[in-house]
Amino acid sequence: MASHDHEKQAAMDLAEDSRQTSWDHPSFVAELFKGNFRFDLISPFPEQNAEDKRIGDEYMEKVRVVMEQYIDPEKVDREEEVPREALRALADIGCFGLKIPKEYGGLGMSQTNYNRIVSYIASYCASTSVYISSHLSIGVPQPLKLFGTKAQKEKFLPRLAKGAISAFALTEPSVGSDPAKMATTATPSEDGSYYLLNGEKLWCTNGPVAELLVVMCVTPPKIVNGKEKKQISAFVVDTDTPGFEVVHVCRFMGVRGIQNGLLRFTNVKVPAENLIGKTGDGLKIALTTLNTGRLTVPATCAGGGKAALRHLQDWVNDRVQWGAPIHKHQAVGKKLADAASNTFAMEAINDLACALAERGDADIRLESAMAKYYCTETGWKMCDDVLQVRGGRGFETAASLRARGEKPMAVEMSMRNARISRIIEGTSEIMQLFIAREAMDTHVSRVMPILMPRPGQKDSKFQAILKAFKFYALWYPKTWMPASIGVTTKHLSKSNVDHLHYIARTAKRLARTMFHTMAKFGPKLEFEQLVLASFVDIGTDLFAMSTCLARAEKLLSRNPNDEDLQNLVDYFCSSARERIKNNLMHVSRNHNRLLNKVSRAYAAGKFAWMDDAIYKGTATHFDDGAPKRVSLNIPQEEQVPK
Ligand SMILES: Cc1cc2nc3c(=O)[nH]c(=O)nc-3n(C[C@H](O)[C@H](O)[C@H](O)COP(=O)(O)OP(=O)(O)OC[C@H]3O[C@@H](n4cnc5c(N)ncnc54)[C@H](O)[C@@H]3O)c2cc1C
Fold first, then answer.
1. Once rounded to an integer, what is the mean pLDDT over residues 293-313?
2. Hey, how many other C-beta atoms are within 10 angstroms of the C-beta on 146?
3. How far apart are CA 639 and CA 621, in angstroms?
4. Are residues 588 and 512 part of one domain?
5. Are residues 92 and 103 in the same domain?
6. Closest atom of ligand 1 relative to the 138 alpha carbon
């Protein structure tokens, strides 16, 4: 095997070993991919209780006061900085401790309230929300809450709750989507009392202003079955430690007020008691942190959708072209119907994912990844549609609109801010692969031990074949049997009940199509990413339809005659069915072989002849000055809530 293949296999093995695998409450989506439509797992739709909602609403009012007093979102975008006073005021009302338990000095908010509050902040100023979510969703508090010792929690959480900003440092210049191949090292001292960290971490949000970081590093390898196995471990690092430096502050097309940088560690001495979990647990800690951590990304997309719907309504009524308000032109109307129904779906998916995360015992890997994937892709498409509906004004800045005496809707800024969501905390392509891996688990776990036995595997090849045979003899015929929705639905219209039956049928069809495809391609299925993506998209649409129908059932139980809601859900489900039809067709009939040929020819430079009439020089005189690092560390005495 070439060394490149060895490296790839080692990285995949490490990623495989870092998957979380045991849960009490089954995943609705995992069941769907097996062909089981378990509507009972999400219906009745879980709702935030009134008392918890009141706590969240009251807190949002406090946040509103701070934001309006200290933050001008357009100025943040222009000057690339969230004002220090705003961060201090947010720290004073406990915003940096929103999700930290009360016993450690935080506000102990529920996951649902936390997401509502971050999304509320994002609907006003995206950069400010990133400060909070990078700190609380993925920064030091989250891995410590999940994996920290009591001593670590007592030492760090009160400080973090008061406003000591933290960050999550995983990405490196050479590794982004594939963190298993990271190079930053943590070398243990001879007496085991400390580690020396060396390496670089890139694009660390909050990194340039953080007091504490969670840093994933390579620790010495372990020998497993006679082979060296790479170990990744997670550490809490105080940025006051000598050897830590911010090498560069990065600038971006959107969320311009964030602080994000390239960080360097040169013999940074970290006490052994700052190791989170055990050595070798680092990647699992990072991935598990992201399972819940990434939920704030889709929440902000849903919030953005709701804000856009609210702001657009006057415009589509007031703007008259060709003798009619523009919403009456069907081409515009489609964008509005899509925006309204997709926002309903985004919110339902988010609320469900939050409620599942709140339970603590539920397998939310798929639901969380799908929420992220679906909402960021849908939210982005919606941004584009909203800009289009605003016409030229969508492309104009809010300041320019204001200066001409028009309503300053900052659509172009929202679009710049939203774009990063499809990249951070797992790109859309990586979310697809992640979901596909989990979706295929039924087959991977049974077929791979036969096709590609791993060293140290429990079962012999013969035992694996026997087990697989027993399983498929029962499972496969079931995928051809009539599907039932298993629950009674009193409040949905006939067409919406029909959608439920469609989901149950299609889940079975999806499960057996996935099985047939696995049988056809074997281990090579890994390279059929677009076929896998079609499976993921079908599963995601089935999940979105189910979630919308579960929420609609709940809402309609209170107001059975709400025809507009019936139509909204019916429209969403009908559109989803159209997408599913196309994706099913893509699995059996596509031109992916041709696509491979064209993309490989391009990468090999075969189309260089297209380079005609483009600038090929190397002008370098547009440098816009030295990178700036704004000191936003809030002195401890200022952080204590008054
Ligand atoms: C504003 C911003 C904030 C960030 N904040 C943080 C942070 O706080 N902490 C942190 O650790 N990181 C952070 N990141 C890094 C971010 O998580 C990475 O950018 C992201 O994981 C993608 O990695 P990459 O950019 O290196 O892309 P690459 O991994 O190089 O990927 C390039 C392209 O190839 C695709 N690709 C890669 N592998 C595959 C594959 N196997 N199959 C199909 N497609 C593939 C990707 O989807 C992408 O489209 C941030 C980045 C930005 C820009």
1. 92
2. 15
3. 43
4. yes
5. yes
6. 8
Distances (CA, A) of 293 to 42, 140, 287, 441: 21, 11, 9, 23
What are 172-190's pLDDT values in tens digits? 999 999 999 999 999 999 9
- The residue from 291, 310, 344 where one domain ends is 291
Q: Kindly report, residue by residue over 542-581, the tens digit of the pLDDT.
A: 999 999 999 999 999 999 999 999 999 999 999 999 999 9
Structure tokens at 501: 């039956």
The mean pLDDT of the chain is: 91
The number of folded domains in the chain is 4
Closest of 380, 393, 388, 379 to residue 329, by C-alpha: 388
Q: Looking at the structure, tell me whether residues 259 and 193 fall in a common domain.
A: yes
- Examine the domain organization and report whether 262 and 304 are in the same domain: no
* Residue 639 within a domain: no
CA–CA gap between residue 277 and residue 275 (Å, rounded): 6
Assess whether 399 and 514 both reside in one domain. no
Q: Which atom of ligand 1 is nearest to the CA of 167?
A: 8
CA dihedral sign of residues 119, 120, 123, 128: negative
Q: What is the pLDDT of residues 63-87, one digit of tens each?
A: 999 999 999 999 999 999 999 999 9
Which residue puts its alpha carbon closest to atom 31 of ligand 1? 177
Please name the helix (run of DSSP H) or strand (run of DSSP E) that holds residue 261, with its range, or none.
strand 260-271
Q: Nearest 5°: CA angle at 635, between 113 and 55?
A: 15
Specify if 628 maps to a domain.
no
Query: Which residue has a Cα nearest atom 40 of ligand 1?
Result: 430
The verdict on residue 339 lying in a domain is yes
**101 & 180 share domain:** no
Determine if the peptide bond prior to 325 is cis (ω within 30°). no
Q: Say yes or no: CB of residue 124 within 6 Å of ligand 1.
A: no
Q: Are residues 496 and 391 in the same domain?
A: no
CA distance linking residue 89 with residue 289, whole number of Å: 27
174 lines ligand 1 (CB under 6 A): no
- Both structure tokens of 20: 């979380």
pLDDT bracket for residue 7 (50, 70, 90): low
> Are residues 383 and 504 located together in one domain of the fold?
no
**Which of 417, 424, 528 for mutating ligand 1's site (highest number of atoms within 8 Å of CB)?**
424
Domain with residue 567: its CATH number is 1.20.140
| Residue 310, domain CATH | 1.20.140.10
Boundary-marking domain end, from 399, 434, 469: 434
Domain encompassing residue 490 = 3-21+28-44+479-593
Question: Which CATH number fits the domain that encloses residue 76?
Answer: 1.10.540.10
Give the span between the Cα atoms of 97 and 143, in whole angstroms: 14
Question: Residue 198: which H helix or E strand, with range?
Answer: strand 194-205
Is ligand 1 within 6 A of the CB of residue 502?
no
Q: From ligand 1's centre to the CA of 427, what distance in Å?
A: 6
Q: Tell me the sheet residues that pair with 249.
A: 261
Residue 636 lies in a domain: no
Q: What is the CATH number of the domain that holds 195?
A: 2.40.110.10
Lowest mean pLDDT among 216-220, 470-474, 490-494, 585-589: 490-494
- Identify the pLDDT of residue 522: 86
How does 574-598 read in b/e, with b if 16+ C-beta sit within 10 Å?
Answer: ebbbeebeebbebbeeeeeeeeeee
* Distance from the Cα of residue 158 to its chain's centroid: 27
